[in-house]
Automatic annotation (TrEMBL):
This is diguanylate cyclase. SMART domains: GGDEF (SM00267). Residues 778-805 form a coiled coil. The lineage of its organism: Bacteria, Pseudomonadati, Pseudomonadota, Gammaproteobacteria, Lysobacterales. SUPFAM superfamilies: Calcium-dependent phosphotriesterase, Nucleotide cyclase. Keywords: Coiled coil, Kinase, Membrane, Transferase, Transmembrane, Transmembrane helix. GO terms for molecular function: diguanylate cyclase activity; kinase activity.
Length: 967
């Protein structure tokens, strides 16, 4: 079976730099030892990576290196790791975990060893920078022969290979060097016809020798180089890799990463292009990931589960709200920046919906009519129909009847278009917009979802769900089961209608309602859309990524046959999604296309996954478990070569890891302590166990690991240890202790009887005395209680006054800064959960200091008071005006877009301009400057929104004041 070759755009790119724990950002060499560990050569030490964390070995570590600047790495035929440094020293780490150092000895030069290679005789060949070729023999002796006088090696280039017949090939900046059978280092034969350019050799996994010369690749065939490919670029190749699929990966000096395959040369797309600079090394690990060592850090390319599309791929915007596949198998993509169409060949075309110089049309919902018309629901432009001929039909009356915000569309059997809007449910029939006169339909509610089930129309809104029958409207009460209120999606599957809400999933079937929510094991509260695929999977979109489970489990929980939903997998950016925040309250927010692929809209683009690929990933080998550290009472132990002896009563701590680099943070573990318990104990993602005061005996700890949804590894990591008995655990000590306890018990019993009689007599006397004292105290407490009541009344009055002062600005009567900060944090969290728009306006009275200086501070205070009253009058009930301090005010506008907020600011400025007697001073004019922002996906917390608003205010002031700057 031929391997599946996915385009480079489908690879997810992971990046590590010094911020993630690397000691240096320049990676000269990457290798993997037989135990599965990844090793990196840097200028600041040797780095080991286990998929979870980096461990650095340098001169200050234990064990330590002879020098921090690592030149190269090499894994020999026995699996040992060799490390070279900038002073000509070598170190070896063998398969048993032992370290051995080889300090440089003459005649070897004390310079950087750029590359290493081993031959069949056990010799380790060394490329000395600017000096030539040497080797370390199996006995540990350095050998070096200077190159001939007529051969300059001052400009060697890292690259050393021993071919199948024992010849040693070496790179340099002006051509390939070769050590022939007589041991003489010379230039490659002139008959090769190779140009003078930076050159180096590469030995492919199949044993074929390649020569890289400048920007060209040559393959050795019958002892001569044959040109394979030349790059059309003004750069030269710096690294090469032929992966397990036969694809050629190429790193360059200044032109990034490329791949040469059956389709020709392929480059990384713009959105995933690696930083500029030299690519020093390329490596494929045993799971098929491609590792890239560059001057700017460590990069890994792995075949991700999801593929994502965004602005860099041709979409009009990254904030995608709806996706639809039409009957012609074209994908329609609606976003906050417009509408796009992806044709069958993958090309993306923007659809112009705007009128002339009109602003961009924000698309919220999509549907296809039975005649092939594509219906587009917008945020503020009503409904637009796109005919098969491309002509647009606009229904502006939708905007007039409902204030726009068309979040849901559905076409019924009569080809009538039902329109869910901010102002209830509308219908377009025979080219006319109408509001159906059916009692019980939502009229002043935000309709968020529409669906059809068994010939009936289902309407979801912020107030629940309704079923439209021919003669009546039935309300399905969700709140009684789980407390749901807002319906976010509707999906008809067989005889059931699945309802996605802000409190999980509901199933309506045969008149009965079932619930699958947080309490039943769903890892999130709000679910946007449920989509089943053809393999039994069910995909759920949410604010916290895409969830995957199976339909059988969902039905069992909804039926009550099962209490918990187990094994739900969550996918996010690490799985290739452009953004883990999916979008809801618009639709369709996700879908299954004709090929069985699942599409989902997100705040960072459009993502798609082929469930067949999921099956392939789940069939990958289980991660190999490996012990990392063993500590006894905090002290490191050498566990590799002998059984660990543990003193009685000691604390034994063992850490372990599953060696996989594909989503390694999701690996699950289980342990079994043979000798104490024969059952496996699942540890989840926990990577360590600890045992305290184990009974004496011989134990074996076994560790197994697996990928989520995979199988437990058959290979286990084992630790053998023995716990010695404590002195008091011997049989004679136990016998003596039992006898002493019996004698002590008898003596204590006799003494206790004597003490009991004496205590009874003393207590009788105390009872009489205490009874008299308590009577006196009761009278005193009654008087004190009356005084306390009066004092509490006065304190309550003072407390209420203090609370008002703490939350209200004393001058203007507006909420103060404290109340504003609480409201901003609360409304920002609500925005993140629901996706409702949120705007913030920060305004400042222009030249207010001049008012104080010219007319006195009492006039200035009256001006501020009048500003506060004007803001209260101009705002809606749900808006929050506040005084932040001095002449600075703020308006927190919930469920308000930037356009609506800007209109409010314009009205405020008109009110300010209309008044000419501010502070009671005739002819005194007052203006303000304002900064306006709308919450975006990039805002991670409320302070980000305030910081952008403050920056916009500064821009307004810099623009001459008396303006509103929108950012």
């Amino acid at each position: 079976m031929l391997p599946v070759i996915r385009p480079m755009r489908d690879y997810a790119v992971d990046i590590w730099t010094t911020r993630e724990g690397l000691p240096h950002n320049s990676l000269r060499k990457i290798v993997q030892t037989p135990d599965g560990l990844i090793w990196l050569a840097t200028w600041e030490g040797l780095v080991r990576y286990n998929g979870q964390e980096f461990t650095t070995f340098d001169r200050g570590s234990t064990p330590g290196l002879l020098d921090n600047a690592v030149g190269s790495l090499h894994v020999d035929r026995q699996g040992s790791l060799w490390i070279s440094d900038s002073r000509g020293n070598l170190s070896r780490y063998d398969t048993r975990g032992h370290w051995q150092h080889f300090p440089r000895e003459l005649p070897a030069p004390g310079v950087l060893v750029q590359a290493m290679a081993s031959d069949a005789q056990g010799r380790l060949w060394l490329q000395h920078e600017g000096k030539g070729l040497g080797h370390l023999d199996p006995g540990g002796r350095f050998n070096f022969t200077p190159p001939p006088d007529d051969l300059s090696v001052l400009l060697t280039y890292p690259g050393l290979v021993v071919d199948s017949i024992g010849q040693v090939w070496m790179g340099s900046m002006d051509g390939i060097l070769l050590r022939d059978g007589q041991g003489v280092l010379q230039r490659a034969p002139a008959s090769f016809g190779l140009p003078r350019a930076p050159s180096w050799p590469y030995l492919a996994p199949d044993g074929v020798l390649w020569l890289v010369v400048g920007n060209s690749l040559y393959r050795m065939r019958d002892g001569k180089p044959v040109l394979h490919y030349s790059l059309d670029a003004q750069t030269f190749l710096t690294s090469m890799l032929i992966d397990s699929k036969g694809l050629i990966w190429l790193g360059t000096e200044s032109d990034g990463l490329m791949r040469l395959g059956p389709g020709g040369l392929e480059r990384m797309p713009e959105g995933k292009k690696l930083p500029g600079g030299r690519i020093l090394s390329l490596f494929e690990d045993n799971e098929g990931s491609i590792w890239v060592g560059a001057n700017g850090g460590l990069f890994r390319l792995r075949e991700a589960l999801f593929t994502s599309y965004g602005i860099s791929d041709g979409l009009s915007g990254d904030y995608v709200r709806s996706v639809l596949e039409d009957s012609q198998r074209r994908i329609w993509i609606g976003s906050a920046q417009g509408l796009d169409r992806m044709d069958a060949d993958g090309s993306i075309h923007s659809i112009d919906l705007a009128r002339g110089n009109e602003n961009v049309v924000s698309v919220l919902s999509l549907a296809e009519g039975r005649d092939g018309t594509i219906w587009v629901g917008t945020f503020a432009d009503g409904v637009i129909g796109i005919g098969r001929d491309g002509r647009l039909t606009r229904f502006d009356q939708v905007q007039q009847l409902s204030s726009g915000n068309v979040r849901a569309l559905v076409v019924d059997a009569n080809n009538w278009l039902w329109v869910g809007t901010q102002g209830g449910l509308l219908r377009i029939r025979d080219g006319k917009v109408e509001r159906p006169e059916i009692h019980g339909l939502p009229k002043q509610e935000l309709v968020t979802a529409l669906g059809q089930h068994e010939g009936q129309l289902w309407v979801g809104s912020t107030e629940g769900v309704r079923i439209v029958h021919p003669d009546r409207v039935e309300r399905v009460e969700l709140s009684q089961l789980g407390g749901a209120r807002t319906v976010l999606g509707l999906q008809s599957i067989g005889k059931a209608m699945w309802i996605s809400t802000d409190r999980g999933l509901y199933r309506y079937q045969d008149g009965k309602l079932g619930h699958v929510g947080l309490e039943q094991g769903l890892p999130v509260d709000a679910v946007f859309q449920l989509v089943p695929d053809r393999l039994g999977n069910v995909w759920l979109s949410s604010n916290r990524g895409v969830l995957r489970t199976d339909m059988v489990s969902l039905n069992e929980v909804a039926d009550g046959r099962r209490s918990q939903l187990d094994g739900v997998e969550r996918y996010a950016e690490i799985d290739g999604m452009s953004n883990s925040q999916a979008n809801g309250s618009s639709g369709p927010g996700s879908m299954l296309d004709h090929r069985g692929r699942y599409w989902v809209v997100t705040a960072g683009g459009l993502s798609v996954v082929d469930p067949q690929h999921l099956r392939q990933l789940r069939e990958r080998p289980s991660p190999r478990p490996m012990l990392e550290q063993v500590r006894v009472n905090g002290q490191l132990q050498d566990w590799r070569n002998s059984r660990v002896e543990v003193p009685g009563g000691a604390r034994v701590s063992i850490s372990y890891v599953g060696l996989s680099y594909l989503i390694s943070d999701r690996i699950r573990y289980r342990t079994r302590l043979v000798g104490l318990d024969e059952e496996w104990i699942e540890r989840g993602r926990q990577r360590s166990v600890e045992y305290i005061s184990l009974p004496p005996g011989r134990y074996t700890l076994q560790v197994s690991s697996m990928h989520p949804g995979g199988r437990w590894s058959l290979q286990v990591a084992e630790l053998h240890f023995t716990v010695a008995p404590l002195w008091w655990q011997s049989p004679w000590v136990w016998f003596g202790a039992v006898l002493a306890l019996l004698l002590l018990w008898a003596g204590l019993y006799r003494y206790g009887v004597y003490r009991y009689k004496a205590r009874s007599q003393r207590l009788a006397r105390l009872v009489d005395q205490r009874t008299y004292d308590l009577q006196l105290q009761a009278e005193s407490l009654l008087a004190a209680n009356q005084e306390k009541t009066r004092l509490l009344d006065r304190l309550r009055e003072q407390s209420e006054a203090f609370q008002r002062q703490a939350r209200q600005d004393a001058l203007t009567g507006l909420p103060n800064r404290r109340v504003f900060d609480e409201a901003l944090a609360r409304e920002f969290s609500r925005h993140q959960r629901s996706g409702h728009p949120l705007c913030l306006v920060v305004l400042d009275i222009d030249h207010f200091k001049t008012v104080n200086d010219r007319f006195s501070h009492s006039v200035g205070d009256r001006v501020l008071t009048e500003v506060g009253k004007l803001l209260q009058q101009a705002c809606r009930d749900g808006d929050l005006p506040a005084r932040l301090g001095g002449e600075e005010f703020a308006l927190l506008l919930d469920d308000t877009t930037a356009v609506e907020a800007e209109q409010l600011c314009s009205r405020l400025q008109a009110l300010f301009h209309a008044r000419q007697d501010w502070g009671g001073v005739q002819g005194l004019s007052v203006t303000f400057s304002a900064g306006l922002v709308q919450a975006q996906a990039d805002d991670k917390q409320a302070t980000d929104l305030y910081r952008r608003a403050d920056h916009a205010l500064y821009s307004a002031k810099s623009s001459g004041r008396d303006v509103t700057c929108v950012e």
